[in-house]
Amino acid sequence: MAVNQNITQLKEANKLKIEQKENSRLRWINLNSAIASVDESADLIQGLNQTPKSLPCRYFYDDRGSELFEQICDLPEYYPTRTEQAILENYALEIAQMTGSCHLIELGSGSSRKTRLLLEAYSQINQELQYYPIDVSAGILKTTALDLLRQYPKLKLCGLAGTYEQALAQLPPAELQNRMLIFLGSTLGNLNQEQCNKFLTQVQQALKPGEFFLLGVDLQKPIEILEAAYNDSQGVTAAFNLNILRHLNQRFQSNFVIDQFAHLAFYNRVENQIEMHLRSLKTQTAVLEALDFEVSFQAGETIRTEISRKFYIPTLISVLENHAFQALQVWTDPQAWFGLLLCQRQCINNECP
Ligand SMILES: C[S@@+](CC[C@H](N)C(=O)[O-])C[C@H]1O[C@@H](n2cnc3c(N)ncnc32)[C@H](O)[C@@H]1O
Fold it and tell me: How far is Cα 208 from Cα 187, in angstroms, rounded to an integer?
């Protein structure tokens, strides 16, 4: 298995080398070091050892998970993507005019489907377009990178494969260039309050005063709309949720029996968040061989696989202010279902003369 994996990785690396030669506008950085992959599984084991159990939601995203997420974005019940897209259709150019020429760095870029609207807008004001998409799902990152280079002749792209934490610690240097960090799709909502504070501290440290942070967040709304969005009638969200176990089986040589778990998604009114869980249909045990770790489930016990917090803009603005970000402008859709905030990093503690 390990040998096969190495051969596949070598083939991928060779393919990329060829593509890089062919395309001098593409650079590729793999942020996963050996040390990072040891750390990587620590939160996985911690989550499975806890009561109630949980899994880091980044494990949704292997190639299949990214493909299923793309399908979710097109579901009639899943309003966030099309709502955020509509906001960007209306305001991408205004955003570009407000920030002026800048390098675009995106966390959790996936297929960059909405970012294309920003690329269009910035190509109108930038001499040269520079985009740094960052994603833990290397397959979709690479396919998207090649597609974008074909679509935008002015574009120079540097793809970074790895986690937010790895990327924020190693962002391309600011030099003289103005930068905007982009975080769309309400992915911020997948972090609990503590993780969110840690993340925003990292964003604050990564950006210089004057630079920009563009943040898309899902807002509070009637519970029926929220619950329908995570329980679609075609069962795509259920397949996405269960795919996390298939991904773990492949990545850590584990033996979760996928059809012995069921999808569960509901709104937690106390925490103002959607929660996705996998419910064990019987008493069972799974072994993660690569981690030398075993986990047991009671019948009916659940693993929480994702939270999706729903925000209230004034509260979010004050959280951002605590991390040295001033919201310059907030745009929403006519129903106020989704918010897009353009924030600017402020000077703190004698940072500026
Ligand atoms: C909810 S999707 C959003 C995709 C896209 N930004 C959008 O708005 O449609 C989250 C994206 O972040 C990536 N991702 C999830 N957890 C990550 C992590 N810890 N570090 C880096 N990327 C992550 C996933 O692979 C996926 O592409």
Answer: 23
Q: Is 159 in the pocket of ligand 1 (CB under 6 A)?
A: no
What's the distance, CA 106 to chain centroid?
9
**Residue with CA at minimum distance from ligand 1 atom 14:** 108
The number of the ligand 1 atom at minimal distance from the alpha carbon of 109 is: 6
Instruction: Quote the percentage of the chain above a pLDDT of 70.
Output: 90
* Contact (CB, 8 A) for 344 and 325: yes
Looking at residue 104, its pLDDT comes to 96
pLDDT digits (tens, 9 = 90+) for 155-204: 999 999 999 989 998 876 666 578 999 999 999 999 999 999 999 999 99
How many whole angstroms separate alpha carbon 46 and alpha carbon 39?
A: 11
The whole-model pTM stands at 0.92
Confidence at 38, pLDDT banded by 50, 70, 90: very low
Instruction: List domains and CATH numbers for the chain.
Output: 26-30+77-221+315-345 (3.40.50.150), 42-60+223-309 (no CATH)
> How far apart are the CA of 349 and the centre of ligand 1, in A?
32
* Cβ 92 vs Cβ 341: under 8 Å: no
State how far the Cα of 61 lies from the Cα of 195, in Å rounded to an integer.
19
CB atoms under 10 Å from CB of 169, counted, come to 13
Name the residue of 37, 131, 181, 187 whose CB sits within 8 Å of the most ligand 1 atoms, as the mutation to test its pocket: 187
